[in-house]
Amino acid sequence: MSGARVGTAGRAGHEWPLAPFPGGGSLAVVVFMIAVALVALSNAQDAPATSGPAPADVGSVEVPGWEATPSSLAVVYALAGSPGARDARVVAERLDALLAAIARDGDFVLPGRLVYPLYPSAERFRRDWWLFAELRDGLVHGWGTVYGGDPGAISPYQVARVVVLQAMARALPLFTWGLGDAIADRLAGVDSHAHARIYLDHGGLPPVIEIVHQLDFSRALPGAHAQSVSFLAFLAEEHGLPAVAAFAREVGPRWYDFSQIFQRRFGITMDDADRRWRARVARAAAPPLSEAEFARYRRAAEFGYRHTLTRSPGGLLLQPGGAEAYVEALRATDALRRFEIDTALRAAEAGQRAAETVQRRAARTRLALRVALWALGIGPIILAVLLLAVPGLRSAWRNRLTRIRRRSAA
Prior knowledge:
Blueprint: E1 6-9, E2 15-18, H1 25-43, E3 67-70, E4 74-78, H2 83-106, E5 113-119, H3 122-133, E6 139-141, E7 145-146, H4 156-167, H5 173-188, H6 192-201, H7 214-219, H8 223-239, H9 241-251, H10 258-266, H11 270-282, H12 291-308, H13 314-317, H14 322-337, H15 341-409
Parallel strand pairs: 4-5, 5-6, 5-7
Antiparallel strand pairs: 1-2, 3-4
C-alpha cells in the first residue's frame, strides 16, 4: 500500500486525496475525525436548549384527549371529568373579559385566540404543554395553569404578559417586563407605585434612563422590575396607556434612541420625567417593611420573576418538577403584587425546592451524557493512535532485531 493514492470521488471526476498512512492510515484518519466530532458534541451539552418539539400545522382547535371550549377571544382546554371541564365556560368568559380590557385600555390585540389549558396536575402540565404550544392557525399559546376549581385564580398578570410579549417580543426589558404588569395592576386594582416606593425606602432606585439598556436592567433586578412597572404606569396616568404602548412599539429594542423618542413623544426630557415620577411614587401608600421583611420580599420577587418573566417556561417544563416551579412562581408573583408577602414567600420556597430538583436532575443527566460521549470519543481516539503508531513500532522493532542478528552473526 505504500505510495498508493487514496481518495474519495470529487466534483468533475476528481478525487480528494487523503494522506496515506502505513497499515490503513486512511481508516485511522476517519476514526480520528469521528472521535473529535463526538468530543465536540460532548462539550456542546452545556449549551441551553433553544428549541422544543417541531411545530405542527394544526388546522383546528382539537387536541387529542382534551375537550376544547372556544369563546370569542380564547380556547380553554380541560380533561373530561376534571374541575377544569366543569368550569371551562366560566374560565373562557373570564379570559374574554381580561383580553377585552387589555385591548380597550392598552390597544393590544392578540393575533389569534388565546389557548389556555386547565391542567389537573403539575405532572400533566409537564407532559402535555407542548401539545398546545404547537397549535397554529390563529391561536396563541397562553401556557395555562394547574386548575384547582377557582375561576378567579386565573392570573391577569400571566395573561397580560402573554399579550405584551406577542405585541413586542423584541422590545427593551423595560417594556416587556414592565408594561404587562402595569396593565395587570390596573385590572387587579393594585397600585403599581407602591412596589417602587418600597425600593425607594430601602436603598433607592437609579434614574430610569440607567435601566433602559438590557444589561443595566438585569443588574438592577429585582428593583428594576418594580421601577419599570411604576414608571410606565406613571406615563399611562399622564398620557394614557395607548400612548405608552405606541411609544414602546416605536422604541422597540433601540435603547440608544430612547431619550430622543421619549422627548419627542411626551414633550418632556427624561430627567424631568424621572423627577416627576419620583414625586408620584412618594405619594404612594406602601406597607412599612422592616429590613428582614424587605429581604423576604426580595427573595420572593427574585424567584417569581426569574421563572415567569425572563424567558419562555418551555425549557423548565420539560424537566420533572419544572411545572411545579413555574406554577408556584406564578402564585408567588400574583401574591407579591397584592403585598401578600407570606403567601408569596411560601409559594417561592415551594417553587425553589422544585427548581432545585430540576437543576440536580439536569446536572446528573448532563454529567452522564458527557461521560458517555467522552468514553465514546476516547475509545476511537485510542484506536486511531494505535492504528497510526503500531505499524511504525513494528517496523522499528524489526529493524532492531535485524541489527541484533547482524551483530550476532559478525
